Amino acid sequence: MFFLRVLLCHILGLLALKAAPSSIADFARKAENREPLSVVFFGGSLTFGANASDPNTTSYRGLMTRWLREKYPNTPMTFHDAAIGGTGSQLGMFRLDRDVLRHQPDLVFLDFTVNDGAEESDSESLASYERIVRELLQADAAVMPVLMLFKWHAEKPDDPLPPRHVEHLKLADHYALPAADVLSGVRHRVKTGAKPADLWNLGDGAHPGDEGYQLFFEMVRDTFQKAITTPASPAIPPQPLFPDLYPVRTRTLLTKSMPAGWAREKTRRTSLWFDGLASRWMGDVMTARPGSPILKTTFRGSMVGIFGERDGFTPPIRVWIDGKPVPASKNAKGEADDLWKLDTSRFAPPKKGSGNLFLWQPLARGLPDGEHTLWIEPVFDGTSQDSQLRIESVCSAGR
Question: What integer is the mean pLDDT of 104-121?
């Protein structure tokens, strides 16, 4: 009986210890013990490494991968690139299961700060970002938020931090996470002599060259080292810091219930750039051609978007939610434009077989939480005979 009581106390003690999410220090201990580890880089183009001479080796992600392998040479590690350029946490929360959690990550480097809109602080994007953080911690992954920047953020190093950075730093503090504040680190280097033009040296104000990524890496590496030597204990507070708008999410695959007149096709296997390759992020798509009927479906939640792929010939669409037209935009006179333009013609001239990219198009946020109808009409008037609307899923979220 005494032995059973001791064993029970030991088991309860272990369960109590695991009640706290994993930390960077826990990851380091596993690495020192040579345990197999999984690392995911989750974010946008600055995580992928756009403009790096070789994104898999000279981006911050590539440099951090090499450094971890060299620091723990006898530890089996797998590294997963889950970065899609031009996307933020709203799409990220729908990709979380497929692109991150299925790898059973021990460590996740989390981007999205600038892609969520550095100068903004809307509640919907804050809710989606925090939902990602909470679910990563619940999955027992160590999490390091990485707060990136663009060239114009470095050019005025004495400016206040942008609103999104302020909120994401508050959120990291709320969960006791070590945030790699790359923006503040680069601004400090600029104050001591570094020149933004030498870091963003390829004529692109968003994505630096190798010199900039080297600096980004140093900020992340130093944060990792500090998190080992001054370990904190991440926590999942009962209440989120921001309103929890999206605890329930649904990615409805349209190929499971295709209407007549639509067809199922494989995703394309080429793209304008690597992190825009649709086949990396989705399965088969449902396609409409001239003559295909309006897509009529339902969703539940307070926000909705479509995920699929596009090219230079992708037709515009009209959208109705609950029977009411949803305008794509308004002009200077306040007049609504009901055509949602989805093609890639601003990136490359329309040409058969080219211009392929993923498509993520938010359609509505801030809806009354509940059941809604969604109609999508492909508008083929004046389009090419090669025009197709290609949608993989309807993504909705709410309470």
Answer: 97
